[in-house]
Amino acid sequence: MSLAERAVARRGTNFELWSWYYFRISGVLLLFLALGHVYIVHILTPIEQVNYAFVAARYAKPFWRTYDLLLLLLAMSHGVNGMRLVLHDYIRSRPWRVFAYSVLYSAALIFTVLGALVIVTFQPVPE
Amino acid sequence: MQVQCKIRRYNPTQDKKPYFSVYEVRMEPTDRVLDLLNEIKWKLDGTLTYRRSCAHGVCGSDAMRINGRNRLACKVLVRDIGQKMTIEPMMGFAVLRDLVVDMEPFFEKYKAVKPYLVNDDPAPVTERLQTPEERAAYDDTTKCILCAACTTACPPFWSNPDFVGPAALVNAHRFIFDSRDKAGAERADVISGREGVWRCRTVFNCTDACPRGIQVTNVMEEVKRKLLYDRA
User: Fold this and answer.
1) Residue B224: closest CA among chain A residues belongs to which residue?
2) ipTM of the assembly?
């Protein structure tokens, strides 16, 4: 099948277009979210104050849970999308590519679910 | 000036793998690299094989990798390269012999984007008029001479030969941005797919390589923006 025929067979699929656009949008958001996180947690707050009590106090407010959840979801999807393209660029063998994608998506799923679970269900333990 | 020229040689019928031949030649600083290749072929080693035709930067036959950068051998002067020179075939295509590569996959992609005006409307009595602004929209991409210097300078293309590559996209741009053309949607099917324009990583090697000065990376971004506005 020629390139033109293959393209016509996949006509109307805009996945790569959306993936590219999503990169731009999520990248801009991450710039603010990630830098904001670094500034608040690692610069504004002295490092000896960043402990369990600090996190517990933060997570008492729904705003910071939403902030962290957004940061987690955007960072994971943005990063995984990038890795997907790197793997597509560099792995030419089909079986190896399927294997690499499986590892990538499994890891992404596990880390996203674990992270989201902690952010959503966190309950401070009284000291 | 004395030039030491290293050329990557390969004859698939004889050699197990490519190797470098080194030639010492005396050239005028204002000679072109193509003159240097001719000097070697005509006086030192007749087996050296390369493509050239017009020798004036228009036919696009003699694109090659000169000191790691894709250039037309007929458009660079020896003095601009220096006394040590390494010449290799363009990367990403099968080498047929020495500096000659198989351009068939390149032209397959070129043809896939329908690089010609498509308009089935009945022909008007006079010309299909365009404003100067409409003409300017695709002026840059009319300059392409299909030398493949941009496509074979593209790292995403080196690692993924299925990528349609900058040259085909430049020629798609030529007609997508032509107000008289009607086949934008058909071209978009080819260039918006998995191996289409989205594989571009804005490395800018293509812009550096283009012997016609086409702002190739800018062209790619214009195509992406247009696809986004038209299809999303």
Assistant:
1) A17
2) 0.80
